[in-house]
Each structure stands twice: as C-alpha cells, then as structure tokens.
Amino acid sequence: MTSNRPEQASKNATTLGFQVHDHSLCVGQALEAAEARCADEGLRLTPVRRKVLELLLQEHRALGAYTILEMLREAGFGSQPPVAYRALDFLSEHGFVHKIERLNAFVACVHPEETHSPAFMICRVCDAVAETQATSGKGGLGDAAEAAGFQIEKTVVEAEGVCPDCADKADA
Hints:
By secondary structure, this protein is an alpha+beta fold. It has one domain (6-171): Arc Repressor Mutant, subunit A, CATH 1.10.10.10. 41% of the residues lie in helices and 20% in strands. The chain is globular and about 50 Å long. 27% of the residues are buried.
C-alpha cells in the first residue's frame, strides 16, 4: 500500500483522499486550473498565493499557518506571519483551500470549481485529509433545521478516524 507521505511514496504516486494517484499530475493540473480560474475571474494569484496553494497541494494533508510560513521562508518568500495569513485568506475566500477547524490548519480544496459543502475525513495518526461533499440541509441536521425554521447556508463536517494506510499503526 502506498504511503500518505510523499517521501515514503513511490516516485509518482501517493495517496489523495486515501486513493493512489499520479501526484505530480494532480498538483500540476490543480495549479493550472487555479491560474485559469483567477485569469477568468480577474483574481490575482500572486507568487506567494500560488506557492501556498502549491505547498498544500503537494502535502495532501492539513498544514498550519506557521508550518506554511516556515515553508515559504525556506522557498525564499517573506517570513512575517501576515504573508501566510493574507495568502490563506485569499485562497480560502475564493474556495481554493479550506480551513480544518479541528486542526486549526488548511488543506487544498479538491473541488475548487464547485460551490459545495465539504466534509472532511481526518486521519488521527498521520493527519491526512480526504475531502468529500456533504449534502447541506439533508439528514438529521436538515430535519432539525427545518423544524426550527432555520435555513442552513453552509455546513462543514469533520470526521476523525484512521486512514487505510494507518490502520495497522492505529492498533499498536
């Protein structure tokens, strides 16, 4: 089985959403799509914003702002916290990244072209994150909201567990 960590994975494949894929192709396509969308919508994907998105795409796990800041510093960008926070604010506002509240960290969105309510599966062993789509307004929460006269505009679901790569480690 392939590891979630790129340094432990085979040359061109790693786990995305707990599925093996061509990692270099995935990162390249996601960056091209972000650049195209920014051009279409008149958004500025500055070098710092692009680098932050690239870092999150490369990791396929949630990263905290200070980890991102350290990676930016190592890549020759600014080392002041506003540098990372401004980039993350932009990327989050435009749906390129999501904040994982449980980890106080960020992850690249796997559906940046769609307006959606994300649901995250977070591995408690390796912090890998898989994104899927939640159905806002359906199920128990939707029923409770309807009964209360509440209109759900956005939901974010975070489930903690163990990914397939870490299943053996979780028992240890």
